[in-house]
Specification:
The complex is a heterodimer of chains A (about 425) and B (about 150). With about 425 residues, chain A is of the alpha/beta class. Chain A contains 15 helices and 15 strands. Chain B has five helices and three strands, in the order H-H-E-E-E-H-H-H. Chain B has a three-stranded antiparallel beta sheet with strand order 1-2-3, covered by helices on one side. The termini of chain B are far apart. The chains are: A alpha/beta (about 425), B alpha+beta (about 150).
Chain lengths: ~425, ~150
Amino acid sequence: MGAGDSPQTVFDVEAVRSCFPIFQQPENRNLIYFDNPATTQRPVQVLDAIRRFHEEYNSNTHRSAYKLAEKATAGYECARLQVAQFIGARHAHEIIFTAGATQSLNFVAYGWARKFLKAGDEILVTELEHHSNLVPWQETAKRTGATLKFLPIDSEGRLLIEDLETLVSERTRLAAITHASNVLGTRVDVKRIIEAVHAVGGLVVVDGVQYVPHARVNVEELDADFYAFSGHKMLGPMGIGILYGKEQLLEAMDPVMFGGSMIDQVHHHYSTWAKLPWKFEAGTQNIPGVIGLGAAIDFLEQIGLDKIEAHCRALTDYALQKLQEIELLKIYCPDTERNPVISFTVRNLHPHDLATFFDSRNIAVRSGHHCAQLVMRKLGIPATARIGFYLYNTFAEIDRFIDVVGQALGYFARWI
Amino acid sequence: MDLDELYQEIILEHYKQPKNQGELPEPDVVIEGRNPFCGDQIKLTMRMRNGVVEDVKFTGSGCAISQASASVMTEHIKGKTVEEVQKLFREFSGMVKGEDPLHPHIPETDELSAFKGVSAYPTRVKCALLAWNALKEGIEREIKEKK
């Protein structure tokens, strides 16, 4: 079956694809890139914005009275405003730039949780969490005496959200919840969790790193207290992340890093802090990263996040339908409100061996525990193979992928 | 790259029917190896006598390369002295890392040479060495304790 027989797309995917230099490289002509949950590719618009910064107005922000620095500062702060609008934040100063979602989550752990949590308090997480939204809370629990509670998943990977009723109590001071699983693709009803936790006076930090690239988020509507995500999962550069926090919470938080730019006054033995958001941005920041992130948001908005979501959903439905026809192949959590992510295993065949086979056919597929060992343990497997789609993926790629799955089954037939 | 270079028949055989699988009762050395990136794991139990590996067994889970490598390894180190095992580790690890391919220490006829193809797959080298790294750690610990 060819692309012609496949469902119609909602925008010109080939035109979009031509914006990504990585797919134009001769050695990548046959590359199928399905490791988007790990990182996405970058369009020329993002690369150009970064290059223009370096070539035309490289300088440090917020420090100097000359045109270059003014331009750098304007670019940096303009991107902050873009991010705020992109996720529906009320104020630009509620957007803190970090090195990535992991750092964003750690900022909440260090700056808020370690300051305000105490023995007897409870932190609620789900068993779906990526290690980056689990390990910081384990450490926080150790240091504050708080207890970690888990919203469980079942052996198929479904989140048992009804257990909220019994798990949330007046001891619940903080919940740290993923908006979408990086392994299974499951989208989590964070609004329901936020309402339940707010009802007992607790706060919620959402790990939106997988969700934001694929669906519209409005932090105000969600009433999320903190929201973390990364630039490189949504066409932006690596090394730039975002922490959204409600104004009054960020005000109450302590800075996490100390040094230049984050101060108001410095005396011999003490200092006072700059206003939001700069209180959290010590030292020279990743200015080209922020400018690249701004260009990535422009790119996504120009196509339209709703159209991107529709395209990715169509790809996912198509892939699920094709994969489900294959005997020996098990898909985890196929029936769920989902991100364009599918995890699967083939009987007796380790995902590594499968991934090596895909690689030999120039298909980039992730295999392993995906930094979610709790999920693997619950599913009773050491690893899965995972594919994830984004706006530049095509139905023809899925057709070829399905074909290669068949080839792999043939190749490994002797041992499955 | 030809996948058959990686997945040689010997490797498939050992993956399907591993040798020396299980745990030894009353072992002198127990060592676990883990690959934190992919979740592969191996547990070795060894009985030593006068500086010689008298018996060895393994349990674990992982890909074909890691499990077959563990199986072949256990067959090769039985009856060898600690020094011989260490030498073999250096030779095997050199081979799968693709060091000095023109002057192989492990002859073509040796089953261990089935893992030569791994050197073309840098991400799989750690799979081939999972059991061997655990072995190295166990042997080093044994030497230290005997001193």
